[in-house]
Write the structure tokens for this entry.
Amino acid sequence: MDASDWLGLQATHNRHRWYLPVTEGIATRGRFLFGGCGLGAAVAALEATTGRPLVWATAQYLSYAMIDDVVDLDVSVPVAGHATTQARLVAHVGERDILTVNAALGSKDHPAKGQYVEFPDLPGPLECAQRPPREEDERSIMTRLDMRLAKGRQWDELEGHPVTDGRSALWVRLPNADGSALAMSASALAILGDYVPFGISQSQGIWWPSNSLDNTIRIVSLAETEWVLVDVRVEGVSGGFGHGTVYLWSESGDLLATASQSALLRSQRH
């Protein structure tokens, strides 16, 4: 199984159009499409349509797709060069746009290579406590992910005490139906890049419901790994918005990708 199968993304007779039924397994506890799954499906559609691997993609979230909605994903390719394809995708339910994505795809042989950010010194996944869904009877994407809390607090430990460094981290594993880990891909990494909202609550020491406004994923390496370290670094929270960056690491310390987001904080009443 690849990320497309995991998400439920379906092809059509038109290689530029795809569709995604919104199910509980790719939705939030609020019953709308999880932003990372929306971007993950877009990345898979873009790669399959262009035949090239993703370099970066940026999504703007415009509206909600609810459980039982069917999202159409339409790909356009304004420029296809020798090494790089510039592409766009619009995901919509009927006439209502859900998200738009701009992306660059491509690859080339080149000797330049380097990794210049430091792998965090944190316990490995099997040394960390599991992070369960917030509600015992929850039916959402969170019940499909194997999550271990590497740096941060569990739900019942968020008692209003902010942290000083804005840092938190989770080990996350995307399991197949047979229990094996999903193969590494840009689409899988896009799913895991949507964790700045988690980091905002961790940084504030209180659970704040929030909605992602955007997400940009930049692929560095697709090194194979069973677990991905989701290393969240919140840069600032002010005026009802939070901003942060996610570094995605393999178990052996390879930087797989970075993601950056802004999120709208909502009242706890909602």
In short: Helices lie at 3-7, 35-50, 186-192, 196-204. The first strand starts at residue 10 and ends at 11.
